[in-house]
Amino acid sequence: TQDDIDLGHKDNTAAVKVQTPENTVITASDEHSEPLPQNAGIKLIKEGQFQDTDGIAEEGEMIDYTFTVTNTGNVTLDSVMLTDNMVTGLTQDVDDVVGNNDSLLEVGEVWGYTGSYTITQADINAGQKENTATVTADDPFDTEVSGEGDATVILRGIILEKTGEYQEDGDGAVEGGETISYTFNVTNTTKVSLVNVEVTDDDPLINPIFDSGDTNMDDILDPGETWVYTGSYAITQEDIDAGEKENTATVTVEGPGGDTVSASDSHITVILSADIGDFVWFDFNGNGVQEFGESGVEGVTVELFS
């Protein structure tokens, strides 16, 4: 049982009793202690998320951290202590992530903690915040085990700028199937290199494709680089009726420590605009374009009502 493993051995006694033909009872016994291997282990995972609202890191903004502590060994641990000299408000979750809330970190149990850190100008200048947390615990014989977890949180982030231009085919009429051409500019405003750049759009019909900007062609978004993506969208009658097309793009990248940073940008493309001119004609086919055989009409007064 787990109690046996925590003790490190299993003790038990065997006994034998026999009776002779003269009805004499003879007994014998033997004790044995079987050692049980113990392997105490503990693992700490630390993750941080920069709480930014405007894409610009500013002194006093916060990084929120989560800590996950797991008993990876085969014995019960107690006296669990999590420390991080940079994080304030370090608090254990009320309920175990995995466990029975008995204050013992049993085999396979997972405990969660949270805390926060207020960034400084020095952090902003560095472009990232890196620090390490430590967890310690005691095994059943009060031998200490420990684990470390570090997190690198990117500051200042990335900037995504999305633009769109309606491409009218030249016949003067807005028609379904005409396109909007999109450009997505992704700029690394940090001081660290970013990888696994992915640009997506909330409209699944728009598929941003890398166009240019990776100056040294290393598939790494270096500090200060701007990568350009392009995409297109065929307008529908619903878009024409609305007079515009609004959608949002998102870019996600991965920093040196594996942390993910994202940014989004929305754009409204005006599809339909109308001008009132000074010429009236018989538009027999109703396409809005004066064509051969569609003569002008004199003496017409046009009144607009709001």
From TrEMBL:
Matches recorded under NCBIfam families: B_ant_repeat (TIGR01451)
Organism whose genome encodes this protein: marine sediment metagenome
Keyword Signal: yes
InterPro entries the record matches: DUF11_rpt, DUF7507, Ig-like_fold, Sdr_B
Gene Ontology CC, one term: extracellular region
SUPFAM superfamilies attached to this UniProt entry: Hypothetical protein PA1324 (SSF117074)
Annotated SD-repeat containing protein B domain residues: 275-304
Entry protein name: Uncharacterized protein
Keyword Signal (UniProt): yes
Positions of the DUF7507 domain: 40-146, 158-263
N-terminal signal peptide: none
Subcellular location: Secreted
Matches recorded under Pfam families: DUF7507, SdrD_B
Keywords: Secreted, Signal
